[in-house]
Amino acid sequence: MSSSAIYPIGTPGIPWGPAEVAAWRGRQTRRRSYADEVQGRIEALRAHFDVGEYGRLEYAPDSYPLYAVRSRDWNTALPVMLVTGGVHGYETSGVHGALQFLERDAVRYAGRINLLCVPCVSPWGYERIHRWNPDALDPNRNFREHSPARESAALWGLLAPLRDTARTHIDLHETTDSDESEFRPALAARDGKPFEPGTIPDGFYLCADSAQPEPAFQQAVIAAVAKVTHIAPADPDGTIIGSPVVAHGVIEYDCRKLGLCAGITDARYRTTTEVYPDSPRATPAQCNDAQAAAICAAIDYALASGGRAV
């Protein structure tokens, strides 16, 4: 099946140029408010955390402050735990799960960890419920120094100083039905490649970093989330989204090679969550709860295991 059969922009077999990117951008409309739904909740966290801007995205006529939420009394003797959400703006529970954790669960770690959380890496994408930024770039394939994706470059700059000291990094994502109906077809069209249909897993799963998989850590997170929502089974060929299942609910990616957020630091315990919000067996509240449970399980495991990043 060619990309032209399912996507309205571009010429089959030819990657997009500036005109196609502009045409795609012109089709995107604001569908929800970062200021009302995210920024306001972050501002309310100032009562218990240090909240600051680590950058600002200027996408005329819009301007988006980028927020980092930190433990108030940062102590270099304590382990550093990183949480990121909303790298893909359309993945709602990544953002709201991170906020829920900060509002409800983070207090119990006060004085035990240095917490740094970025609840919404991609506010333009959040408002338009889209995977890409306005330049038709996927932030989660562009985490590297001098990144062309401004969202990725800003987060890289924030986290790079913690590369050698972070113990844990959990990056919150979703896999949605729109991946198959919109985002993968758009990717094929953008790159001038044929669209190859795939499958959407029904349930929660994790993407471990193949460079530092820590299987016991991954299974501890899976076990905690299984109390909240169901874990995705493997497809008949033993894969999830085309990658071999290495343990219950776990696949692996080479995060740094692919430019994924979870590969920014050398944190020993790192993973990417994937919630399935379109499942008839899950509610939005369950999805948020699953993300928060994954964060808590990741931090609890790292605290129990001790040691510094390797």
TrEMBL record:
PROSITE patterns: PEPTIDASE_M14. Transmembrane segments: none annotated. Gene3D superfamilies: Zn peptidases. Residues 30-310 form the Peptidase M14 domain. Its cofactor is Zn(2+). It comes from the Bacteria. Keywords: Hydrolase, Metal-binding, Zinc. Pfam families: AstE_AspA_cat. Belongs to the peptidase M14 family. This is M14 family metallocarboxypeptidase.
